[in-house]
Amino acid sequence: MATFTLRTIEPTRFGSGWISGVLSAALGLIGLGAVLCFQFPQFLTTPEARAIYPLPYVRALLHLVLVAAFVLGSISVSLRRNKALGTVGVVATLVAAVLGGSAVPADDELVAGPFLGVDWFLLNLIVYSLVFIPLERLFARRPDQAIFRRGWRTDLTYFFVSALLVQVTTILTLKPAMVLFDWAVHSGLQSWVRAWPGIVQFGALLFVADFTQYWVHRTFHTVPALWRFHAVHHSAEEMDWLAGSRLHLVDVAITRGLTYVPIYLLGFAEGPLFAYLVVVSAQATFIHANVRFEFGALKWVVATPQFHHWHHAAHPEAIDKNFAVHLPILDAVFGTMHLPGDWPRAYGIGGGPRVPDGWLRQLWWPFRDRLRR
Ligand SMILES: [Zn+2]
Ligand SMILES: [Zn+2]
């Protein structure tokens, strides 16, 4: 008898229709998202990225993705009693085909305006899941932890929303610094900094950003009104690359906004700034990952998964420790380092407040608790 459920109730080994179902659903939804980007580029795509897409290749790739999603979905539906995954893949592919598939014309006459970064979400999802899912399968710290562990839908929503709102959060981050600290800009200082070699600027940028981030992060842990927003990040009870996305919008806006102030004032060149943005996004994802690498002596120099896993540990001795994202030396200097040789046994807030599941409930939760008091 056929069933439809998003819970995994049958075996997932090769030949059970699970792998083909997951791939079909993922590829089908990615293909559908890409077709929507072709249909509504002015609303759904990032202007900076739009200018550099090699369209003929994107179309050819999209065609392959849709064909693969359809074939894999059919395989899964025939192998598996639970038809949900295969059906999602096949239906997404059919909707994409009805909307024009890979042949849908892209409008060249685009006006600048507000947009949602659907293309940015798809690119991030493809790159990060291609790197991290195999890495976490091959070098798992906890091999028994599922890819689709508890709360994965909540965290994927965070991942989706943060890419979708890339324009909004960028403005939220950059504008306050520019408006409020315009008076403090010193062009002599900025041109001096900009004359440094790129690698020196990058190092300075990393240090300045992490120093600021350290104190903002520490304040989020110590001021009760702010802790409610940051507790959302700590509510994840299983660690993997996707869990790092769980950040309340208020947390993101305040942390990034303040971290940007010294970066703005020092006026770093575009190259080092871009390199920093890539590194911070990759490292922030990596330090949450379910991987067992320990990096020998390097773990005292650069923040590693083991270092940040202790920040998330539900152990009394690890509370309010390891605030840095890049440089553990900040925690060593300010007395908040906790890096024993082993790994935490449990993650989360422990006896702390009970954060609800789901993106929308977590968005509202810090405000609701305040109103109740
Ligand atoms: Zn924290
Ligand atoms: Zn974290």
Please, could you describe this protein's structure?
There is one protein chain. The protein has 373 residues and is mainly alpha-helical. It is built from 16 helices and no strands. The chain has helices at residues 18-39, 41-44, 47-50, 55-79, 84-98, 118-138, 152-164, 166-180, 187-194, 198-222, 224-234, 249-266, 270-286, 305-311, 329-333, 359-372. Helix 1 (18-39) runs antiparallel to helix 4. The longest helix is centred in the N-terminal third of the chain and has 25 residues, at 55-79. The protein is globular, with a radius of gyration of 22 Å. The N and C termini lie far apart (51 Å). The model has no long low-confidence stretch (mean pLDDT 87). Bound molecules: zinc ion (2 copies). One zinc ion binds at residues 233, 244, 288, 308, 312.
- Outline the low-pLDDT stretches: none
Rg (CA only): 22 Å
Number of helices: 16
Record field, number of beta strands: 0
H and E order: HHHHHHHHHHHHHHHH
Average pLDDT score: 87
Q: Which sheet architecture does the biggest sheet show? A: none
- Ions, cofactors and other bound molecules: zinc ion
Structural class: mainly alpha
What is the end-to-end distance?
A: 51 Å
Name the helicity range: 55-70%
> Which geometry do the CA atoms define?
globular
Strand content: under 5%
